[in-house]
Write a structure and sequence with these properties.
This is Glycine dehydrogenase (decarboxylating). Belongs to the GcvP family. It catalyses: N(6)-[(R)-lipoyl]-L-lysyl-[glycine-cleavage complex H protein] + glycine + H(+) = N(6)-[(R)-S(8)-aminomethyldihydrolipoyl]-L-lysyl-[glycine-cleavage complex H protein] + CO2. Keywords: Oxidoreductase, Pyridoxal phosphate. The protein is built from 30 helices and 27 strands. The protein has 949 residues and is of the alpha/beta class. It has a domain of 257 residues: Aspartate Aminotransferase, domain 2 (3-Layer(aba) Sandwich). The strands form 6 sheets. The chain has a 7-stranded mixed beta sheet with strand order 2-8-7-6-5-3-4, sandwiched between helices. A 7-stranded mixed beta sheet has the order 16-22-21-20-19-17-18, with helices on both faces. Strands 11-12-15-14 form a 4-stranded antiparallel beta sheet, with helices on one face. The longest helix is centred in the middle third of the chain and has 39 residues. The radius of gyration is 28 Å and the shape is globular. 59% of the residues are buried. The structure holds pyridoxal-5'-phosphate (PLP). The site of pyridoxal-5'-phosphate has 16 residues, from helix 20.
Length: 949
Amino acid sequence: MRTDAFALRHIGPRETDLQHMLKTIGVESIEQLVYETLPDDIRLKAPLNLDPAMTEYEFANHIQELGKKNKVFKSYIGLGYHPTIVPAPIQRNIFENPGWYTAYTPYQAEIAQGRLEAILNFQTTVIELTGMEIANASLLDEGTAAAEAMALLFDVRTRDQKKNNTNKFFVSEEILPQTLSILQTRSTPIGIELVVGNHETFDFSNEFFGAILQYPGKYGQVNDYSAFVAKAKENEIKVAFAADILSLAALTSPGEMGAAVVVGTTQRFGVPMGYGGPHAAFFATKDEYKRSMPGRIIGVSIDVNGNRALRMALGTREQHIKREKATSNICTAQVLLAVMAGMYAVYHGPKGLQYIAGKVHASAVTAAEALNKLGVYQTNTAYFDTILVKADAQKVKAIAEKNEVNFFYVDADTISISFNETTSIADINQIIAIFAEALGKESFTVSELTASSQLPASLERTSSFLTHDVFNNHHSESQIMRYIKKLERKDLSLNHSMISLGSCTMKLNAASEMLPLSMPNWNSIHPFAPVEQAEGYITMLKKLEEQLNVITGFAGTTLQPNSGAQGEYAGLMAIRAYHLSRNEGHRNVCLIPSSAHGTNPASAAMAGMKIIVTKTTPEGNIDVEDLREKAIEHKDDLSCLMVTYPSTHGVFESSIIEITKLIHDNGGLVYMDGANMNAQVGLTNPATIGADVCHLNLHKTFAIPHGGGGPGVGPICVNEKLVPFLPTNPILKVGGEQAITAISSAPYGSALVCLISYGYITMMGAEGLKSATEHAILNANYMKARFEGHYPILYTGECGRAAHEMILDCRSFKENGIEVGDIAKRLMDYGFHAPTVSFPVAGTLMIEPTESEDLAELDRFCDALISIRKEIEASTADDKNNVLKNAPHTLAMLTTDSWDFPYTREKAAYPLEYIAENKFWPSVRRVDDAYGDRNLICSCAPIEAYMEN
Ligand SMILES: *Cc1c(COP(=O)(O)O)cnc(C)c1O
């Protein structure tokens, strides 16, 4: 028997465990279990048509070879992406460390204080550099962050501007091209009219509710926008800035100029370009807009002992709650990358950032002066890192590429050159030589950077930033290494124990899949580099698209969306374009079952659709009669149905074929939310159930790590009808024949992490993938069998089987005074992260073990929950002082001299035997959410600042 197959490493249960597991479930074989789980009429008849699986070693060689087809040229392209130096301790201790990259979104604050602090550092960095009052924990990229800024200003316009009937948004022509394309996509369906123009000739007409400026402009021009903002204010027009984060260490902040919102990317803070992503965008605004702010915010609060404790703030403003009233659908963001960027600021500190900004600026000025000597005219009147020069683009391009250098060629005689942290004197001399050769002139060299500045005197930054200790005490490697370790130790990640997040599929993120991310040939390519230089990437991305086509049964895939929710939006926009192309643009009704994930209605609202919610039956299935009624009632303007399959309740509904047919018969298309694809791969697929489009969460089903809340990749896969409408990019043409405008900034979204899913599929192969699905179903049903008699399971299929996840009903424990949240906190004492709490049904836990967990780990988790069940039994309705209510228990509690709880220390911390040898200590006691929301603080403030008086 072969033992080198990757599937054997990825899938948890061992061959020898199978009999016991099957017997516990009460089936003869996995085949029988699958037969009882999945309706017959949707079963795939043939194996997936994929290449034979590679071993890990074969894949390592393959990806190395393929990487050689990417040409790493010196990049001066700019446009929001810059070469950067990833500090080695950050690369080794965060980027390549499963303690950081396998963490879940920090909903369980007591076991997430490390990354919460790291994100707080990120927020502080953003707040102080932009000069704003509040910032969020990251967004997907600069372009979509700009669209979120537009949406926020549109949302608040009626509140304090009394601009009920204004719908015009001014966009400076200095905006990055990809940002403009996204603004076009996002404005149209919600009725915003974009007006692109020159900010100096803008007429400040009353019809505008807002404006967005680029600072510095797309080709480097630095403008003083103070007068613009002041004039806008007089006319009740709110101004957003898209700003370069590094430039803000040298330039007056947008906040000081009166900005209402500031967005941008933090890529150049030590996050590799990766052919477009992933990178953390930032979003900063004024305190008064905090309730309209997209994404998540980390805030400071206290635990039950009054100690400082961090947690996600203002939970009630999440899209899950707002649903169809949402203005944003952000769920997954870019947490891992935000952690890296925040740590870059910690490592360099204010002086380091000023030094880097100064050096980058000096490189630009030095090059401009040298080129001037050659007779090359530089046209920006003031600039930070980018110069715009006049020269024969064709000639320069040929010579530059021969020298492995990329500039950005604006037109036939204009070239933009963007400098960065890696630029050396030798690089500047190479640039001089390239232009000299193009002009047929004698070249010369410079030997040092100039001291002169081309920043306008009026815009030189005078305000201080990053004065907090954390940014000033971690500048040696020992300090930063220990600081990162200190934070990491506070967090429970997949390298400690299973994280059974229902719907979120926290499976193994294998090291073999992750390794290529560190290779320069993969991570150092600019997304707008000439495609000939990215042959390795194009080959890999096309191959991944084909693999996903095969897996979903569809005809085309775009990898552009950077999250599942963004995939939803892309899919709905493709559906919209399809109806428009058939002169049926009036079709805008979107049917959504009430059990849907909150992002579904939020995405539909952003796509300008009218949302009709349909009922679910008491068994948790779609109420087909209600759906039929509504589909028929709206048949003249039906756009689509959004359906999750298997359902959000973890059941393969047998009526799915009838449901999709019903929608088609009434002129609509079917959008399948593919978050639960882990129960389908190799057994059935969206095309077979009759869907027209689905998104996949590569960060769930296809092994990209969760990163503590991102990165994500949410490709959409579509049938022939929708292929023509897949999104494009304004600089590198991708997508369909009648492509919609951009969904995200980079042509292929977060291309770097697509390597992970490519690796996963390539090493698993058809058989391995199918086996993974079967084992995911096996593990879920094994746990379900173990819970029998202890916890009621909500909703199962017709044969009493779960699919890949199950819901434990905890509502009746109210009689014992126990809430589902108490169980979640008590699980920490047992060394486990809670499953999904109160989704899709309030008062329940949704458990998804995935195929990666082995029998022993499943048993430990089941033992823990069963033991907790006994503790619940011992609790009474008005008992406020017991082992559940006081959970989690910290080491500090256990080791104080006085112990006055009505149970032993051992029961508190070591309730089961397995715990002792691998104890995980929560670092704070239970966190008070309400306190933090009343006293919202989202940056590294001193403790006095949040004491309630
Ligand atoms: C995770 C999830 C989404 C959203 O995906 P993000 O990447 O977080 O935007 C949508 N629907 C369901 C059912 C999900 O589980």
